């Protein structure tokens, strides 16, 4: 009997873990374009580097705000392998979140070449489906 109870409890815990870790992916609005206004690909820049984000076809809203056809920006800096696109984006020095609805940032980057790319996240920091991403640009910092 205790074996059956133990097995039932294990299955119940697995079910709860599955339900609470599943995050719905928000469908992308067709025709949305995400882009970096400045700097432009190939630019040579000095610190601080002002990066301005552009979005056409959707609006910008802070993270946690459930408003249709809106998202918020995530800036990927020198990322070589894209993060999982069906989970919340990581938050670290290479994956910068702008959950307040910001549309630009001043960065201090080390001298040399750097890549920048934007990914639009939904209210839960999860990329839309299909992902809405800018082209990756390369800049050089003096």
Q: Pick out the low-confidence regions.
A: 1-21
Give the biggest sheet.
6 strands, mixed
Q: If helices are DSSP runs of H or I spanning 4 or more residues, what is the number of helices? A: 1
What is the name of the CATH topology? Immunoglobulin-like
The CATH superfamily is known as Immunoglobulins
> Helices and strands, in N-to-C order?
HEEEEEEEEE
Tell me the total number of β-strands.
Answer: 9
Q: Percent range for helical residues?
A: 10-25%
**Distance separating the two termini:** 71 Å
**Which architecture does the CATH hierarchy give at level 2?**
Sandwich
What does this structure look like?
The chain is of the alpha+beta class and 142 residues long. It has a single domain (2-141), classed as Immunoglobulins (Immunoglobulin-like). Helix content is 14%, strand content 35%. The chain has one helix spanning 2-21; strands at 33-38, 44-45, 49-56, 59-60, 70-77, 95-98, 104-107, 112-121, 137-141. Strands 2, 4, 5, 6, 8 and 9 form a six-stranded mixed sheet that branches. The longest helix has 20 residues, at 2-21. It starts with a helix and ends with a strand. Residues 1-21 have low confidence and may be disordered.
Name a few traits of the molecule.
three-stranded antiparallel β-sheet; disordered N terminus; 1 helix; Immunoglobulin-like; about 140 residues; 9 strands
Condensed summary:
The chain has 142 residues and is α+β, with helices and mostly antiparallel strands.
């Amino acid at each position: 009997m205790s074996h059956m109870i133990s097995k039932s409890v294990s299955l119940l815990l697995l079910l709860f873990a599955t339900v609470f870790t599943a995050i719905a992916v928000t469908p992308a609005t067709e025709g949305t374009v995400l882009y970096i206004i400045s700097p432009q690909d190939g630019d040579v820049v000095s610190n601080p580097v002002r990066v301005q984000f552009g979005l056409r076809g959707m609006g910008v809203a802070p993270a946690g705000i459930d408003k249709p056809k809106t998202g918020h920006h995530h800036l990927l800096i020198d990322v070589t392998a894209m993060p999982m696109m069906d989970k919340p984006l990581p938050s670290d020095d290479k994956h910068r979140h702008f959950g307040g609805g910001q549309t630009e940032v001043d960065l201090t980057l080390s001298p040399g070449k750097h890549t920048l790319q934007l990914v639009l996240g939904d209210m839960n920091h999860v990329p839309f489906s299909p992902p809405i991403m800018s082209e990756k640009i390369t800049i050089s910092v003096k």
